[in-house]
Amino acid sequence: MFAAPLLALSLALVPPLAQAEADVGLDNDFGQMNEDFQRIDLTPEQQANAEAAAGGIMAAAGGLLCVGLVFSLAALAAFIWVVVDVSKRPEMDTGMKVVWALVAWFVPILGPIIYYFVGRKPAAPASRV
């Protein structure tokens, strides 16, 4: 329904945009851009600074990746603990079990902590017969 007018509008805009890019010297020749970039002359000091900055950025990204991995594994372990603990509680009805599992899943780390202090009641002592 709307495809034909949108197609006509986009086809009508392509030549003026291409002309505007040509007028200001914008071309989509990435090979030329790469050659221009390689022509930038850096002093050895500037080159060393650029390499050090790139190394620092990569180290920071690697550190963040490690922190994210640890956080994700802790959240997964906490979620699994909540699901196992909830499933072992016969006094808790099924609806509450589902609610606590969803809280643990959608509120990582904090959900299991809330479950531990609020939702988890001490298990009833086993009766000896």
UniProtKB/TrEMBL annotation:
Q: How does it sit in the membrane?
A: Multi-pass membrane protein
Q: Keyword set for this entry? A: Cell membrane, Membrane, Signal, Transmembrane, Transmembrane helix
Q: What is its main location?
A: membrane
User: Where is it located?
Assistant: Cell membrane
- Can you give the residue ranges of the Cardiolipin synthase N-terminal domain? 78-120
GO cellular component assignments: plasma membrane
Tell me what this protein is called.
Cardiolipin synthase N-terminal domain-containing protein
For whether the record's keyword set contains Metal-binding, the answer is: no
**Membrane spanning segments where?**
57-86, 98-118
Q: What is the lineage of its organism?
A: Bacteria, Pseudomonadati, Planctomycetota, Planctomycetia, Planctomycetales
Question: Signal peptide location in the record?
Answer: 1-20
Database matches in InterPro entries: CLS_N
